[in-house]
């Protein structure tokens, strides 16, 4: 148990390798990427084929206000303040509850990896290959963990695997959730959206110390990754250093990244991300005037 945090960090690095394989960037060979990605998925409890396609959807619509429902999730999307205020009281509560840092970043991540990834719950019927991939991953996991359980004891396997997976899921989801959130991150209407502007203004640069950069596979250089997803994680830092324009992006310290979890609304009038509390403060003068 004492080594669970360290093991979780190694698992995060394995997920980043899987992530690169999903973009066909870790190896030159497409087959090598897919084989490696599948086996990484067994360690991270992730159905590689379906995750790869869903993640590609995110890369097609990030920070595009008019395409948020075609490949985004609660970690890479948001409502505008006007949309939020138009919701019923119950819907507002649901929105706030789902995106509260405790729920979104502590409660939901383990459920995603342990439960939701075991089911093709949000996949269209015509995603036949991806659906098969979910079942194939589950069968492989039953064989792998079942064999370990028979040899070592199921209780011992659970004591090792469950804490490590919980910690790794929380770290990994936190990493991805803050990469498009900050007070400076920009959203665009579709007619103004283009990949380069969205990469440099809608993706953040998370500054981490050297050891954490290694464990997280340089995913903090997220603006570079979105600018060109075919750049492998071990080249992201070099690209950032080589081009001065890549340094003029929203930057987050560790402290900024923790605060960024509260930015869940886009204020089109102010042109920036805001917290629920800030949105309420902005509403007070308007109500008083009315």
Automatic annotation (TrEMBL):
Query: Which protein is depicted?
Result: Fatty acid desaturase
- Cited PANTHER family: FATTY ACID DESATURASE, FATTY ACID DESATURASE 2
Origin organism is: Fodinicurvata halophila
According to the UniProt record, what class of enzyme is this?
oxidoreductase
Taxonomy, superkingdom:
Bacteria
Q: Any idea which UniProt keywords this protein has?
A: Membrane, Oxidoreductase, Transmembrane, Transmembrane helix
Matching entries from Pfam families are given as: FA_desaturase
**The keyword RNA-binding is assigned to this record:** no
Q: Which residues form the Fatty acid desaturase domain?
A: 3-245
Molecular-function annotations in GO: oxidoreductase activity
Spans through the membrane? 102-121, 133-152, 158-178
EC number assigned by the record: 1.14.19.-
